[in-house]
Task: structure prediction
Amino acid sequence: MRVVLGPRKWLLLTLALSVVVWLIALAGLLSLARHVHDDVPVLLAKKLPLLKTHPSLIFAGDSRTEYQVDPALAAQLMGKRPGDVVNIAYDAGEPLALLAATRRESDVFRNAHVVTSVAPFIFNEGVKSAAIYPQDVAARLSIAQQMTGFLPMRIGTLIRFIREAFASRLAADEDIADRAPVPPALGLVTIDRAEPKDRWPTSIGAHGHYANWNLSGPKTHFEIAALCDMVKLTAKLSVVIPPWAPRYDRASDPTWHERDDQYVALVENAGRACGFEVINLPSIPELAQSDYADEMHVTAKGVPIYTRALVARLKQ
Result:
């Protein structure tokens, strides 16, 4: 008996087949991306030429080091020669990427004090946004974990992973870490103006870094393990937890207070277990609200203040 499908059923069948084909194609792209992925992203590779001076103090980590630590001033404050202190931090920098650079440039890092900043989103499994999800963590997830964890609402994270995976491989093949021009200002990048006040979050407890709070996922495991692995590959490792803008009050924000304490405890416990120093800077009194460009980054005016405060802690 011949079955005749109506127009509506044909449409549904076509859509279903299209979805299946699309998912298979996406899985194929993800598999290829995992295969070509290099743990050193382009943004970090472009800063590695700074290591040619064999610095003894290397600032690394995320944007709160990239935009806030002046290596030239730090060298002056610590009595070091020009070029002996560099800043290789980059936007959304993660420990796994720094670990890969440490292994790749082992002759430099084994004699250097590495000071790296960390942020809550690095360890919080609940943060899945494309802009800041750690790409090296994504590369360590299976295809099934990637697709079930990010589809359908976070497909942008997978698309970014695919794009960044191919970019990192190209950077490795072209030896960007060695052949790229040396970044100006020893790696410091500054922010010249503040964000409009209507773009600042109303509270830190509701900030995206603390969304869907979960410190027991793959992010937590992989990134903490990376910090621990770096201890044996560096002369000394210091992990910095930078402050937020002073307009926010932890005492009146119980969500922030609770989750931030958990995040700090996670890093401090790992530091005691693995042997790295933890520098927690919940506030820097000398930094005024006017020194901040947004809720977590200082402007160029605040850079010397932040650098001096951090160096003072490193000297203790």
User: Anything to note?
Assistant: The domain at 38-135+176-315 is CATH 3.40.50.1110 (Rossmann fold). The chain is about 45% helix and 5% strand. The chain has one domain: 38-135+176-315.
